[in-house]
From TrEMBL:
Native organism: Lottia gigantea
Keyword Signal set for record: yes
InterPro entries: C-type_lectin-like/link_sf, CTDL_fold
Signal sequence, start to end: 1-22
Keywords tagged on the record: Signal
Name of this chain's protein: C-type lectin domain-containing protein
Regions crossing the membrane: none
Length: 221
């Protein structure tokens, strides 16, 4: 079954609730089964009047994969991890009717629906996802990118590196997420080998850490 068909089935079961147009880019929010009382911890944005408004904040944040919204309190939360209906998270009993929507970017050219949290970078013809909320060691970061159908990001071109460094420094969550990020070192000249791994710093330079260090990581697909 292709990825596209899979998503079409998801639409039928859960109903695609809204399409968001932002800066000539399209996003789709897919509602997950009711998760009232269940939500991951994060800082809410208050007084956001609609779930589309909430989703607009999400699409402007490179790390947002999901929104949690409650219309009675205009409560909007940008969540860095996708909603699942089995995830154990904080039980907020004072705030029922909290709905969770995974936010997916849709490629304008191919109509492909990207995995939640991925953002399309037209100039580099690639989709990137910045994982910071659950730091991982090197082996696990590779596995998790692969589970999303991708791999750790390669940094072959100067312009792609510059794009990533700009995001790492301009996104407030990433800016406070520590200084090292796992990437995919593709050239084998002078690079460390296990137990040492090469990591990207926020200033765009490379350093070495032991591969069991748990830090944020960047996937692409
Ligand atoms: C949340 O807490 C309420 C009361 O504290 C409890 O009745 C309810 O079962 C809990 N829900 C979940 C999903 O844990
Ligand atoms: C990475 O983490 C996993 C899970 O905690 C662990 O099983 C594995 O041994 C770790 N790998 C390294 C190289 O530290």
């Amino acid at each position: 079954m292709s990825r596209r068909q899979y998503f079409q089935i998801v639409f039928l079961l859960l109903l695609c609730v809204c399409t968001i147009q932002s800066l000539d880019r399209r996003f789709t929010a897919i509602r997950f089964p009711p998760m009232e009382g269940l939500m991951p911890q994060a800082d809410p944005l208050l007084n956001v009047k609609t779930k589309i408004g909430c989703a607009m904040f999400c699409v402007q944040d490179e790390t947002c994969a999901c929104i949690s919204y409650n219309k009675f309190d205009s409560f909007c939360m940008l969540v860095p991890e996708p909603a699942t209906n089995f995830e154990k998270s904080t039980n907020i009993s004072i705030m029922p009717h909290l709905y969770h929507f995974n936010v997916h970017e849709v490629r304008i050219d191919t109509k492909e629906i990207l995995t939640q949290g991925y953002r399309w970078h037209e100039a580099h013809q690639t989709a990137l996802r910045f994982h910071y909320s659950r730091p991982k060691n090197n082996t696990e970061s590779i596995q998790l990118c692969q589970q999303e159908g991708g791999d750790l990001v390669t940094l072959q071109t100067e312009s792609k590196l510059n794009t990533i460094v700009r995001i790492l420094n301009s996104n407030t969550k990433l800016a406070s997420a520590g200084k090292h990020f796992y990437y995919n070192p593709t050239t084998d000249t002078g690079l460390p080998s296990p137990p040492m791994c090469s990591v990207l710093t926020k200033s765009g330079t490379f350093e070495e850490v032991t591969c069991d260090t748990t830090i944020p990581y960047i996937c692409e697909r």
